[in-house]
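Protocol step 6 of 9: fold each sequence in the batch and record its C-alpha cells directly after the sequence line. For illustration, a two-sequence batch is reproduced in full.

Sequence one:
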Amino acid sequence: MRFESQTGKPVPISYSENPTSIGDYIRKKRKELNLLQKDVARICGVTEDCIRNWEKNQSIPQIQFFQHIINFFGYMPIAFDLDTLSGRLKTYRHINGLSQKQFGKILGIDGATVCSWELEENKPNKAIMEKLDSML
C-alpha cells in the first residue's frame, strides 16, 4: 500500500516525512539523495545492517559514528540546549565522537563525573569549569 505526499509523490508507509528519530532522519536524507543503505553505510563507516537497524529504530548510532553522520547530513542532526552546560557537553561530545569516559580522560576525571554533569546532578569545580569554558 502506498500513500501520496502533499507534493503528489508516492510515499511508502515506512517512510516518515516528519522524522522524529535519528534513524528517521538518516532514512529521509538517504532517500532525498537517492542513496542505497550500503552507500550510507560506506559513508558512515558501518555495515549495511547498522543503517537498516538505525532506520527501523531498532538501535541508535554509537557516539563514535556521529562525526560521519554529521558529515553525511552537513549539520548536527540532534539538537541540545546550548544554554545549559549539559547541552554544551553533549554537543561537544557528539561532534567529536567522544564517549563520556573518553571526554573525562581528556579532562583528567572519571567518565561517571561527566555523566553526572550531563544529568545535571553535579557541577564541575572552578578549575575544571575554566578548562571547559576554553573547550566549549
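Sequence two, same batch, same settings:
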Amino acid sequence: MEEELDHIEEGKEEWVKLIDRVYPPFEKELETAEEKMEKVQIKDEPAGFDCDVCGHPMVIKLGRYGKFYACSNFPECRNTKPIVKEIGVTCPKCEQGQVIERKSKKNRTFYGCDRYPDCDFISNNKPIGRDCPKCSHYLVEKKKKAANK
C-alpha cells in the first residue's frame, strides 16, 4: 500500500484508480468489525452521599467534560455537582474556605477558593499553606519549589 501511495506521489499512478481498487475490500472488513465489536456500557459509580435536593443517592457519571456527581433520580431531579480536588490549604484571602484545583475554559489548571463568588481568590500557581517569613504574603509552589507570590 505504501509503495502504491509513493507511485501516486511520483505521478506513475492515478489516486482514483488506487482507491477504487483498495476501498471495497477495506469496507467489507470495516462492516465485519462493526458487527463483531462489543458495545461498552459505562455504569454509574455510587458517590457515597445523598442528593441535597431530593435525598436519593448521588452517583458519579462520565460526561463529555469528564466525571461529575449527579442525582440517581434523574430526570425527576436534575441536581449535579462538579468533582473538585481539594489541595488541603485554607484560602489566604477569606481564611474560611478551602483552595481547590479548577480548570479554565481552555483546560488550564488554576486554584481558587471554594466559596466563590463570596470569595474571589484565584492563583495560577499552587498555594502551599505557609506565609512568607519576610513579608507575610502566601507562598506558592513554582517548579516544585516554594516561591513568594
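Proceed to step 7 once all outputs are recorded. Observation for sequence two: The longest strand covers residues 57-63.
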